[in-house]
Design a protein that fits this description.
- The chain has about 190 residues and is mainly α.
- The chain folds into two domains: about 1-105, no CATH class; about 115-170.
- Helices cover about 60% and strands about 5% of the residues.
- It has a three-stranded antiparallel sheet.
- A hairpin with a 4-residue loop joins strand 1 (about 60-65) and strand 2.
- It is rod-shaped and about 135 Å long.
């Protein structure tokens, strides 16, 4: 799996370098570390795509336009086959190199994005649960304090009412009008 990942990254790097090579800048072609005569003769002995791709274990590519098997060890993949990446097969004969590069890039990007999202969600949900618990504690504490204030206010109101009733009783000023003092009517003003 690691070798496939490394090879995919190498192919992506080759595609990027290939895009820079098309801008008419002089570039050098790097050969692989294996001896060119040995590996090219190894690749040249395969005549069909299945043999070239599967038996060479990733060292060779098959050119669909010329029906030839060539070495993968050079830096510019578009120079290997005349049709470029669209006519080059590597690792499988059913998908060309261009589709393989794009597909692997998309799959890698989606996996990377999903891993990042999972990490973010785990961290945020963990913090959110802690924050929610903290808010619930604060709300319970505030409700308790509010209930205490309401109880004290009710007690003070009852005490005030009791004092006011005592004062009214002392001076005979009841709300129902049964006290000994009554409103003085001035009959002189009416006439």
């Amino acid at each position: 799996m690691n070798s496939l990942l490394c090879l995919t990254l190498a192919v992506l790097l080759l595609a990027v370098v290939n895009g820079q090579a098309s801008s008419n800048k002089p570039t050098t072609v790097l050969q692989s570390t294996t001896a060119p005569s040995n590996s090219s003769s190894t690749c040249a002995k395969y005549t069909n795509c299945d043999d070239c791709v599967q038996k060479s274990k990733g060292k060779c590519v098959f050119c669909n336009d010329g029906k030839t098997c060539k070495e993968l060890g050079i830096l510019h993949l578009t120079d290997v086959c005349k049709g470029g990446l669209m006519s080059t097969s590597w690792a499988t004969c059913t998908v060309n190199m261009m589709a393989l590069i794009i597909g692997m890039s998309v799959v890698g990007g989606v996996l990377l994005l999903s891993v990042c999202c999972c990490i973010c969600c785990c961290c945020c949900c963990k913090d959110s649960a802690k924050q929610k618990l903290k808010w619930m504690r604060e709300d319970a504490l505030n409700r308790g304090k509010s209930d205490e204030r309401k109880a004290r206010y009710a007690e003070r109101r009852a005490e005030r009412e009791a004092k006011n009733d005592e004062i009214r009783k002392k001076y005979g000023l009841f709300k129902d009008g049964s006290g000994k003092y009554q409103k003085f009517d001035n009959d002189d003003d009416e006439a």
